[in-house]
Each structure stands twice: as structure tokens, then as C-alpha cells.
Write a structure and sequence with these properties.
390 residues; alpha+beta; two-stranded antiparallel ribbon; 7 strands; elongated; Sig_transdc_His_kin-like_C; HisK_dim/P_dom
Length: 390
């Protein structure tokens, strides 16, 4: 649309310049030609008229008669000049009117032709843009596959397809690596947990062995949690392979079910299309983060609702004061903000996973410090209907 308007504006400017130049040349030529032609037939110089009429050279006229003839000659010359000016003005006005009509018709034809040509020329670009948006929203398996002449647009589309193919291969290798790493790392931890539990449950196990086994089980649990957080973060960073309808209200209810006595909820419908497992992890991390970094006898509030074309999940608490300039830092992996994450048995991955999952779903995750202490974390995701329209 903008290209067509630019094209029409250029045609209008060029047409106005052409009409202006034509008008100036026509006006000058009209005046000069009419003046030269009429002067050859009838001179308009007063002295010449008087001479031709013989006012000064003919002695048979009295002075009064000569004066009247001279006055008549002057009036005749003035009338001739007025009529010539009127004729020139009418001719120039006619030229302007007809030129304006012609310019308007040419402009409309130019806009119509520009619309058709721009639509035909930009159709491949629209196809490329739509494919790029689909790739950005869902999967790297889409390709443009632009058909047509071997021109610059086809070269651009082929280059884009080649880039997508390389990215698809890279992400496929990464997904396989994450899956293999998950299996290889979980297996020894599971074996260690089993061996420790068997050793601790032996009838002849000493108290020292049981105490050591308990400490090792705690360390193993922490390692499993760390591994689970890293794998979830890696999985969310890869994007979403599939999407299913999910209601954030149901997910938030399950996340607060175990702590229903200490969490206030206001759960309105908030439907999205996404990965249920990752979204459950988002709600769980937000609730656990709010409970962990809360004050004694504090409160936690969880709210879900739909605002325009967005589904919103908000978790607030009455925890310690968080400086406003550090609200972005809490979303960084392993970032610790002094006493807020110290001695809690956590690794600083919870909010990093929340933001990564939100971005993978095409949304945002932001934090706002509350006046008097505490934090509000808000996750905004596109609703199912808005994503379907796109």
C-alpha cells in the first residue's frame, strides 16, 4: 500500500511539474504570437494609430476633430488590448482545466496500475514474510519454496530456505543432545539414589552410614533438581514443537493445590495454545519462588485473567524489599541477589525458566517490586484466538 501511494505521489509531482512548465511556455508563446500577428495587421501603438489615421498630417481637420480622432484611436487600442488579454486568459484557463482533468485521470490510472503491479511484485515478499512469521512462531520445518523466474526475489527465498535448513539441522542435533544428556545424566543419579537407599535400609547399617547416606541423598536430590532445571531451560530455549489448548487457570490451581491454605487465588479463564508441561513448570516455579522468598506470616496471591488478546498469570508475595533496578537480574540463570536467594537450597533457575518458557510461547515475563516489600511477577501470553488469527 505504501509503495503504491509513493508511486502515485511521484506521478502527481511529475505531472504537476509538467503542467507548470507547459503552462509557462504556452502563455509566453500565446502572447508573443498573438501580439506579433496582430501588430502586422493593426498596430496598437497610439502614435502609430494617430499617424495612420492622419490626425497630425491632414490639415483639413480642425483641432477639435483631430483631438476626437486621437481619443477614439486610443480607446480602440485599449479595447483591442483588453480583448486580447481576455482571449489569452480564457485560453490559459482552458489549458489549466483540461490539464487538471488529464492529470487526475492519469493519476487514477497510475494508482490502479501501481496497485496491480505492486501487488504482483510484492506477492513473493508477502509469502516470504508469512513463512518467516510461521517459523518464528512454531517450527523450523517450514520452507518458502518460491517458484518463478530466477530473479533477486527467488535468490532471497532460496537463501532463506538454506538458512532455515541449517538452523533446523542445528536445533535437531541440539534436541538429540539434550535428550541423550538427560538420559545419560539421570541414569547415574538414579543408580546412586538406589544404592544409597539400599545401603541405608540394610538391617546391619550403622548410624554413621545412615547419617552419611541421608546427606548424600540430599545432595543427590539437589543434583537432580539442578539437572531438571537445566534440561527444562534448554528445552524451552529450543522453541515449541507442538501446541495444545491450555487454560492458565487450571495450571495455576494445580500449582497452588498443595499450599491452598497460604495462597490467595483469583483464577479467571485464560486460554492459550502451548506446551502444558512447560506452562505447569512456569506456574510451579512462580508459586514456589513466592513461597520461598516470603516473610513469616506473609501472603502469596495468584491471579489469572484474560485482557484483550492476552492471557495473564500474576503471582505476588509480601517478601523482602527488592530494588527496582534489580528486577531484570532475577531472570538471569544462577543470579543471586544477596539474601533473596541465599541459603534457600535453590539454584537461581526458577525465574530464568519462567522467562524462557514465556518467550518460547510468544509472550513476556516481567517483575515489579511492591511498595513496602515483596514482588509481583507477571507472565503475559497470547490467547488461543489471537494466535489462530495470525
Amino acid at each position: 500500500m505504501r509503495l503504491t501511494l509513493w508511486y502515485g505521489a511521484m506521478v502527481m509531482v511529475a505531472g504537476l511539474c509538467l503542467v507548470s512548465i507547459t503552462y509557462v511556455l504556452f502563455a509566453n508563446a500565446l502572447h508573443n504570437n498573438i501580439t506579433a500577428t496582430t501588430d502586422r495587421i493593426y498596430p496598437r501603438s497610439t502614435a502609430k494609430i494617430v499617424q495612420d489615421l492622419g490626425v497630425a498630417a491632414t490639415p483639413r481637420f480642425s483641432d477639435a476633430q483631430a483631438a476626437k480622432r486621437e481619443e477614439a484611436a486610443i480607446e480602440l487600442a485599449d479595447e483591442f488590448n483588453r480583448r486580447q488579454l481576455a482571449a489569452e486568459t480564457a485560453a490559459k484557463q482552458s489549458l489549466l482545466t483540461e490539464s487538471a482533468i488529464a492529470l487526475g485521470l492519469v493519476a487514477m490510472l497510475a494508482l490502479a496500475g501501481g496497485w496491480l503491479l505492486a501487488g504482483r511484485a510484492l506477492r513473493p515478499l508477502h509469502h516470504i514474510t508469512a513463512t518467516a512469521r510461521t517459523v518464528a512462531d512454531s517450527t523450523l520445518h517450514e520452507r518458502i519454496g518460491l517458484a518463478g523466474p530466477d530473479d533477486e526475489l527467488k535468490e532471497l527465498a532460496d537463501t532463506f530456505d538454506a538458512m532455515l535448513a541449517r538452523l533446523d539441522r542445528a536445533f535437531s542435533h541440539q534436541r538429540r543432545f539434550v535428550a541423550d544428556a538427560s538420559h545419560e545424566l539421570r541414569t547415574p543419579l538414579a543408580v546412586n539414589r538406589t544404592l544409597l537407599e539400599v545401603a541405608m535400609n540394610r538391617p546391619n547399617a550403622s548410624a554413621d552410614l545412615r547419617e552419611l547416606g541421608g546427606k548424600l541423598l540430599i545432595a543427590t536430590t539437589r543434583h537432580e533438581q539442578l539437572l531438571d532445571g537445566l534440561l527444562t531451560l534448554a528445552r524451552s530455549d529450543q522453541g515449541l514443537a507442538t501446541r495444545t489448548p491450555v487454560d492458565l487457570a487450571d495450571i495455576a490451581w494445580h500449582a497452588t493445590e498443595s499450599a491452598a491454605d497460604t495462597v490467595r487465588t483469583s483464577l479467571g479463564p485464560a486460554a492459550v495454545n502451548g506446551d502444558p508441561v512447560l506452562l505447569e513448570r512456569v506456574a510451579h516455579n512462580l508459586v514456589q519462588n513466592a513461597l520461598t522468598y516470603n516473610q513469616p506470616d506473609g501472603w502469596v496471591a495468584v491471579e489469572t485473567f484474560q485482557y484483550q488478546e492476552s492471557a495473564v498469570l500474576t503471582v505476588s508475595n509480601s517478601g523482602p524489599v527488592v530494588p527496582a533496578d534489580l528486577t531484570e537480574a532475577i531472570f538471569e540463570p544462577f543470579r543471586r541477589l544477596g539474601p533473596r536467594t541465599a541459603s534457600t537450597g535453590r539454584f537461581g533457575l526458577g525465574l530464568a525458566i519462567v522467562r524462557s518458557v514465556a518467550v518460547a510461547h510468544g509472550g513476556t515475563a516481567t517483575a515489579f517490586p511492591r511498595e513496602g516489600g515483596g514482588l509481583t511477577v507477571r507472565v503475559v501470553l497470547p490467547t488461543s484466538s489471537s494466535r489462530d488469527r495470525r
